[in-house]
Amino acid sequence: MITSWLKWVLWILLILALTIFTNAAGAVFLLLLTVIVPLACMAANKIAASRLEIAVAFPDTLEKEEKMQGVFTAKNSSLAPCGMVEAVLTSKNMLTGEERAAAVSFPLGARQSVEWPLRLKDSHCGKISFSMKRLRVYDLFGLTCRNILPGVRGSVAVLPNLFPLAVSLGTGGNLDKDGTDYSTEKPGYDVSEPFGIREYIPGDSLKNIHWKLTRKLDRLIVREAGLPLENSLLILYETGTADPAKPPSPSVCDAMAEVFISLIQALIADRIPHFIGWQDQNNGAFLRYSLQSEEEISGVLEKILAAGQKEDEFFCYEHYIQNFMACDFSHVVYITARPPKDIRLFAPKSRVTVLLCQDEERPEKIDEQTDVQVIPFYPAGAEQDLYSIVV
Questions:
Q1: Which is nearest to 338 in space by CA: 322, 314, 321?
Q2: Are residues 245 and 344 located together in one domain of the fold?
């Protein structure tokens, strides 16, 4: 724009010199045109910029590696032309943190509209958020520009490639396919599932007396009822990183999300109710959901695809304790790229399985913890590494 001003000033000086030395009527007329026409274009550009309409359209979802074409539309509703329109559209994968920018520029006549194709392709799943970073409208001579805040925003969900998981249930409770898990640590109230037997204590209900054993042992024996654990299985998804200079690679973030969603899908297919949870790094809230059906997966899928990694001094399970006070689940699965520390303190009586996603270029050191099953997997071989797991 500075170059355009220099050229205009030099042209005015040249015509002014011609007018002084020749005193010709034509030179005077040309001088007037040299001054008035650009000024009129500046005023017209202000009007055109105020009547400019911008829209960007993308499909709602996209498969990984699929080439998708969006449309950038600009419409000038005024009678004044736009000398040049410059737009910069930015996009960010909220899961992996990858950012891109695309720039377009074009002239736009009076009452004219144009469409420009926008191509998008991503090799990683995640929620792609896009917005208009800059929009400028120049007059025909390029002397002035109007900066516009178009408010163009949107998102595209790049869907994960899911794979089958053979999930089997380990010890740590009596979990069945109907979702009922009975504590092996303490009795409860469900007489249909006995916890054990013991001697009678004053105050015990007479209904719980085991009469056959009482007659055999010649002392009062009672049945202890089982304690059903409604919260039998918890899956935690780590979104925090200790070192902001070394965040998980996009491939690791992609693999973690695919394993997370594939595991949820496998559990629902086997009719195993469960809870999932993670720390939302964008608003500082811990999100927890109970899932039992395919429809419920659809409700949280977009939130999972937007659960990016950010610096966090606390682990996901520490955030859980801060929000829910205690872990009352008999099984805990922890999906992370961050080797856990003291996770046994979080769930002292639960069966804990850690699915640790490692970058092949910089594998993390695994701190072995007693009674904690750690299963490492890599982005390129997650399906083979986790084909069959015990939770």
A1: 314
A2: yes
